[in-house]
Amino acid sequence: MSKKVVHLAVFASGGGSNARAILEYFRNREDLRVSVIVCNKEGAGVFEVAKAFGVPAVLVKKAELNNEGSMLELLARYEVDGIVLAGFLLLIPSFLVRAFEGKILNIHPALLPRFGGPGMHGMHVHRAVVEAGETESGPSIHLVNERYDEGAVIHQARTPIDKGDTAEAVAKKVLVLEHYWYPRVIERHFINAG
Ligand code: GRF
Questions:
Q1: Which end of the chain has fewer surrounding CB within 10 Å, N or C?
Q2: Could you confirm whether 108 is annotated as catalytic?
Q3: Nearest CA to ligand 1 atom 12
Q4: Would the pTM of this model clear 0.70, i.e. be above it?
Q5: In this predicted model, what pLDDT tens digit does every residue of 119-164 receive, in sequence order?
Q6: Which atom of ligand 1 lies closest to the CA of 18?
Q7: 3-state SS, residue 39
Q8: Smallest Cα–Cα separation from 159: which of 136, 125, 130?
Q9: Cα–ligand 1 centroid distance for 46 (angstroms)
């Protein structure tokens, strides 16, 4: 990327712990800035995170997300170069995939290509992993295309699943890895390799 400051939009639907980890990591940086947080759920925790970091947050419901004119205008207003999904539950429309080709990342809380796809989010994922008797799990960070969790994986991290670990225990272990790796992979993708 030739521009000096990379501007990112973080899209989130929930509590925003990954959004927080990203904002903390890039807090004092001049080369990468989160210029806007986009959330589709009124009252979601991520609005508080945005407030705490002084980052503008915009409520964008499904109909607006799918409205090409208004979405591209919104992202242009915040000079967005790339999009980072952090617990965003809506499918990214194809006009956005085309407009930001190779520049939309997602984090999924399991080792793709297994345990992904429509409906596989949050605790559904960790329960499926435990029920399948897996001995390890971990986040996958991948490029986003028009299908849930199918874009090219660019990073995975692993943690063992111990005998007797509940889905909640696995979720906790995976989340620690998410918070560590997501900002670093974002840095590598948008700055070092940009
Ligand atoms: C994370 O587990 C992430 O992998 C998934 O959604 C969850 C979001 O959690 N895509 P949070 O809102 O960042 O706490």
A1: N
A2: yes
A3: 16
A4: yes
A5: 999 999 999 999 999 999 999 999 999 988 899 999 999 999 999 9
A6: 13
A7: strand
A8: 136
A9: 11
- The answer to whether the CB of 116 is under 6 A from ligand 1 is no
> CA–CA distance from 16 to each of 45, 67, 165, 173 (Å)?
6, 24, 24, 17
Using a 6 Å cutoff on CB, does residue 18 contact ligand 1? yes
**How many whole angstroms from 175 Cα to the centroid of ligand 1?**
8
Beta strands in the chain (DSSP E): 6-12, 32-39, 57-59, 82-85, 104-108, 136-137, 140-143, 153-156, 159-160
What is the rounded distance in angstroms from the CA atom of residue 109 to the CA atom of residue 116? 9
Catalytic residue among 108, 121, 142, 179: 108
Q: Is the CB of 149 under 6 A from ligand 1?
A: no
Per-position DSSP letters for 54-83, written without gaps between them: T--EEE--HHHHT-HHHHHHHHHHTT--EE
Share of the chain above pLDDT 70, in %: 98
Report the chain's mean pLDDT, rounded to a whole number: 96
Tell me whether the omega of the peptide bond preceding residue 113 falls within 30 degrees of 0, making it cis.
Answer: yes
Encoded tokens for 3: 């521009």
Residue located nearest, by CA, to atom 14 of ligand 1: 17
Smallest Cα–Cα separation from 49: which of 25, 19, 26? 19
